[in-house]
Amino acid sequence: MSSVGASGASLSSGAGVSTTSLPAARQPTLIVTCRARPGHERELEEWLRRLVAAAAKASGCLDVELQPPGATHPREWVFLHRFSDPRSLAWWINSPDRQVLMDGGAAHLDGFAHEQVASLAPSRPPVTAVLTVPVRAEHRAAFRQLHDLSVERMAGMPGFLHAELLDPVPGVQDDTVILLTFDTRDHLDEWLASHDRKQLVERQSEYLLAPRTLNVVGGFAGWFESGRGDVTRWKSGAAVLLAIVPASQVYLAARTSLFPQLNVVVATVVGNVFTVAALTYVLMPVITRRLKHWLLGAGAA
Hints:
alpha+beta, Alpha-Beta Plaits, 5-stranded antiparallel beta sheet, disordered N terminus
């Protein structure tokens, strides 16, 4: 990731940078790549996490992401932080606090930390369908077999990313919860309306105690503080699941007791509105506040 193409502007650590030397994009992204000196891997990671924490608190920082070495960039750490405007980014690059941090990490680097600025638009978050399914206890194995068949069919659909089945947890979660993730809402809707899925849903219906509840949510980023740390996908997903299960249960109980004959399309629309509103305005603000240290903790990577 040493080059970002024509839109990139190379920097050197500690060099004075003005807003005129940065891309004119409204939300420029600073990309830092570096390698650990042999034997300094732990020290380099600790230094990068201090840098992440400081950048997240900088004025105008929208979000940060720290990527450890992997198949796409062996041995190389990649740190991206997106700012609201070039002026805010220039302030952070030239700030004394950042310079002290950059100087402090030099002893752990194999070579230099390479920095570039790019006009990177934030990627569109995936879309997830969350299904709450009251499966009869004696039929859970048969239901899972049909779920596995459903995943095989989904794997051939455009935009399919991930599927997960979560079994009931005594005292916490009475129903089976299924998460289906696609890259766009259009691709998710294509699967939900497909003939294959309708057939599988009909076969699964004999194993259920009551109708399933389906809620569609977009990316989780809007429910987490922007620019306040490196929240990994699995932690954000776990936090959302913690909120969406009770919200779905409350809606299902209210619907079955008050409006048992409600049209399934109307019930789905009302359920989506209720669940998203409950998460956005009630549950997620409480959960993210209570779990803040866990969500942003060092174990996030």
